[in-house]
């Protein structure tokens, strides 16, 4: 659409397209008539610009909406150019109106879309910003504007950095610069200042926007509030630190103090106080309250735990949380004994919560006081729950440790008093742990760990095979053991130990042998001393009674002997007389005979006294009799290192005998067997005591040793009275034994073994046989053996 106008503005000519478009007649449109089709909103602007162009005399353009003949408007670009004469004066204006409606609408849409986008971004529940490729900020969303109250100027001139916490800014900047250089996405956590001046943790993420060539043209960033997460993390770290304190065995007071400070950090305006309870005296034991004046918290110590309007007392007794929102104004606390105390120190609210053990026992109370009236918020309840749980763990652990220390002390004291130590042996790894007392018994350095090798070196060389056998037994699955063993100390002292062990199988299959070890040396030494004294005494008794016997025999026999001598001398004298006094000599010879008989009588009487005592015959269980003797001699045998193997057959008939006398025989045989093995070093000192059925209703008992045996001159001499090969021997044991067995109508004999040693056997009749045969005491024996 073309047109021309006069130099001062009014239109002279409008092209046909112009007139067709507007539907105006040429005369209607000329001059200023065309302004009738300009959109009312655009008219003033258009006229103003047209006048400016005229005044400037230079070409110019503007945009405006022109009405079509059908009443609709379209956008046009209106351009005017001056036409000048030779002298440069404007003679005319030429203009063209170009239809730009399509473009304009597209532009509007774009603006509208941008506005939509901006609104969307504004509503994103995060702080969103856009950046130029160089990293400087272009804009921020509404949320960020509202959060930080940054001015538009701050946003673009870098003043926005003022909203970042001073401690975080340097790292943020260097990291951001690095990302802007490399084009790598940016992620960083920092604190952002809110309108109220407080800082909150945010995590910022910024990603680059590339053009088609891959060049970064913009950055978009978003940051989220992570204050909740940060607080939870800090809380968790604090809790962890407290649990570490507990685990590392810090003092309970220190742990509880740190707990109070931790809770105070998480709950501003709160002051914490833990009250320990002693249920034995039902009083509060002490208070831990690092932030409260001691004049406030100390008086709790020793106060009775009563429900008497004491918040902590009620909490402890009723196991409930007690909340005094305002101890000053709440009538419930008017008569409380602590009301004035609390108020005097400037506190108004008191919340007390019981601290319970896993089993539900109240261990303490956890108390929070504040200077203003207040009720606990959900946040407060949350941290109170954490605090009471940690306090419970700390207190329980310290109680358990105290109990453990007590039992440990008790145990080590008991071990010390009873000279009993203990050790554990991990069968799979050979790890060994000694108790304190066992270190003392073994005389090992208590600061060093014990090894099997070390133990072996301490064990008496003769007992090493026994130790090896015991260990093999444990490895072989035996669960209980008890054995005796000797130690040889570095100065050659010998210690006697008695041990009782038990093998434990853990869930994971590991085997552990727990053994109690008693130092028996003292008792053994005393017993040995006693045994020695006893045998010395027995010897002395024997010697002295023999002496007394000899003296009495001498005395008894001396009288008739001196009578005989006197009579014989008299007789000689009478026969030597001249003439011989034959009657007198006969008389004195008679007296000699009388005195001789007298002496024989004395001797017969003595013999009757010593050897002809009749045994008391009764039914005797030979096995039982033997067991009693074994029990009696066990100590002696063990001391002599003799290993006894009883083979007592069950179901044997009862025998006829004098129980005590038979036991005397068994005792004699055992003692002789042990004596015979005293010099044996190269083989086990094996002693078998065996009972079995003998032919003809007899029962036999034999004692088999591995000792020296007897020489080629046979066994019979052994049974002679006073035959002995021992320094201390009397040589009457076997002869007495034989006479006892003879008097039981039995038989006693000795036989050399095939291997080393000898076997002594006696055989006595069954009780039933003895009764039915009517054999009586004193009857001649069935056999006199090899005698
Ligand atoms: P004592 O034991 O006092 O010597 P005994 O009459 O009991 O008296 O024994 C006599 C002797 O018989 C002993 O000294 C010893 O030489 C021998 N004797 C006894 N028992 C055995 C035995 N089991 N093995 C070898 N010799 C033995």
Automatic annotation (TrEMBL):
Residues 552-768 form the Histidine kinase domain. Residues 60-112, 186-238 form the PAC domain. It catalyses: ATP + protein L-histidine = ADP + protein N-phospho-L-histidine. Transmembrane segments: none annotated. SMART domains: GAF, HATPase_c, HisKA, PAC. InterPro entries: GAF, GAF-like_dom_sf, HATPase_C_sf, HATPase_dom, His_kinase_dom, HisK_dim/P_dom, HisK_dim/P_sf, PAC. Its EC number is 2.7.13.3. GO terms for molecular function: phosphorelay sensor kinase activity. The keyword Transcription does not apply. Keywords: Kinase, Phosphoprotein, Transferase. CDD domains: HisKA, PAS. Pfam families: GAF_2 (PF13185), HATPase_c (PF02518), PAS_3 (PF08447). NCBIfam families: sensory_box (TIGR00229). PANTHER family: PAC DOMAIN-CONTAINING PROTEIN (PTHR43304:SF1), PHYTOCHROME-LIKE PROTEIN CPH1 (PTHR43304). This is histidine kinase.
């Amino acid at each position: 659409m073309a047109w021309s106008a006069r130099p001062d503005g009014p239109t002279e000519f409008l092209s046909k397209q112009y007139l067709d478009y507007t539907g105006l007649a040429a005369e209607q449109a000329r001059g200023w008539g065309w302004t009738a089709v300009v959109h009312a909103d655009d008219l003033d602007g258009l006229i103003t610009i047209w006048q400016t162009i005229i005044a400037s005399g230079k070409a110019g353009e503007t945009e405006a909406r022109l009405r079509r003949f059908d009443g609709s408007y379209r956008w046009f670009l209106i351009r005017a150019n001056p036409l000048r004469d030779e002298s440069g004066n404007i003679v005319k204006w030429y203009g063209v109106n170009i239809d730009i409606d399509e473009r304009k609408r597209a532009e509007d849409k774009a603006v509208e879309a941008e506005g939509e986008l901006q609104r969307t971004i504004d509503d994103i529940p995060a702080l969103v910003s856009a950046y130029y490729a160089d990293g400087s900020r272009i804009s921020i969303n509404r949320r960020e504007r509202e959060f930080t109250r940054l001015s538009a100027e701050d946003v673009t001139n870098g003043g926005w950095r003022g909203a970042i916490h001073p401690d975080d800014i340097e790292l943020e900047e260097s990291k951001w610069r690095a990302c802007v250089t490399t084009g790598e996405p940016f992620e960083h956590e920092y604190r952002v200042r809110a309108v109220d001046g407080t800082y909150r943790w945010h995590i910022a993420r910024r990603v680059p926007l590339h053009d088609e060539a891959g060049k970064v043209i913009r950055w978009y960033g978003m940051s989220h509030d992570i204050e909740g997460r940060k607080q939870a993390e800090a809380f968790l770290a604090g809790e962890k630190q407290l649990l570490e304190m507990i685990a590392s065995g810090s003092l309970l007071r220190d742990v509880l103090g740190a707990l109070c400070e931790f809770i105070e950090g998480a709950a501003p305006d709160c002051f914490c106080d833990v009250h320990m309870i002693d249920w034995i005296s039902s009083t509060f034991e002490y208070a831990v309250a690092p932030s409260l004046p001691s004049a406030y918290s100390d008086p709790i110590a020793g106060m009775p735990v009563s429900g008497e309007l004491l918040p902590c007392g009620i909490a402890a007794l009723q196991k409930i949380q007690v909340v005094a929102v305002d101890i000053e104004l709440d009538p419930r606390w008017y008569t409380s004994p602590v009301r004035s105390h609390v108020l005097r120190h400037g506190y108004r609210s008191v919340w007390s919560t019981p601290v319970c053990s896993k089993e539900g026992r109240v261990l303490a109370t956890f108390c929070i006081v504040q200077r203003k009236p207040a009720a606990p918020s959900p946040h407060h309840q949350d941290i109170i729950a954490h605090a009471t749980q940690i306090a419970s763990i700390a207190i329980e652990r310290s109680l358990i440790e105290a109990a453990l220390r007590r039992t440990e002390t008790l145990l080590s004291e008991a071990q010390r008093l009873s000279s009993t130590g203990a050790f554990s042996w991990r069968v799979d790894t050979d790890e060994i742990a000694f108790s304190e007392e066992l270190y003392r018994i073994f005389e090992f350095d208590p600061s060093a760990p014990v090894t099997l090798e070390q133990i072996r070196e301490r064990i008496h060389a003769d007992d090493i095979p026994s130790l090896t056998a015991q260990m093999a037994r444990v490895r072989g699955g035996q669960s209980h053991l008890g054995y005796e063993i000797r130690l040889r100390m570095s100065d050659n002292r010998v210690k006697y130990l008695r041990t009782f062990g038990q093998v434990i199988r853990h869930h994971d299959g590991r085997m552990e042998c727990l053994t109690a070890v008693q130092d028996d040396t003292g008792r053994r030494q005393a017993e040995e001393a006693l045994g020695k004294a006893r045998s010395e005494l027995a010897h002395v008794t024997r010697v002295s009674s023999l002496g007394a016997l000899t003296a009495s025999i001498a005395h008894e026999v001396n009288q008739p002997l001196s009578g005989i001598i006197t009579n014989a001398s008299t007789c000689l004298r009478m026969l030597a007389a001249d003439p011989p006094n034959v009657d007198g000599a006969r008389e004195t010879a008679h007296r000699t005979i009388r005195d001789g008989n007298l002496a024989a009588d004395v001797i017969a009487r003595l013999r009757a006294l010593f050897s002809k005592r009749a045994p008391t015959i009764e039914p005797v269980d030979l096995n039982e009799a033997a067991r009693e003797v074994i029990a009696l001699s066990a100590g002696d045998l063990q001391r002599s290192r003799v290993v006894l193997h009883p083979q007592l057959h069950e179901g044997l008939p009862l025998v006829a005998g004098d129980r005590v006398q038979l036991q005397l025989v068994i005792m004699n045989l055992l003692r002789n067997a042990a004596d015979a093995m005293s010099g044996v070093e190269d083989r086990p000192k094996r002693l078998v005591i065996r009972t079995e059925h003998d032919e003809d209703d007899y029962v036999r008992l034999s004692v088999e040793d591995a000792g020296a045996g007897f020489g080629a001159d046979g066994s019979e001499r052994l049974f002679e009275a006073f035959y002995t090969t021992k320094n201390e021997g009397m040589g009457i044991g076997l002869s007495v034994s034989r006479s006892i067995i003879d008097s039981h109508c039995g038989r006693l004999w000795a036989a050399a073994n095939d291997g080393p040693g000898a076997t002594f056997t006696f055989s006595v009749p069954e009780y039933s046989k003895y009764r039915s045969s009517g054999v009586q005491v004193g009857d001649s024996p069935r056999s006199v053996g090899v005698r």
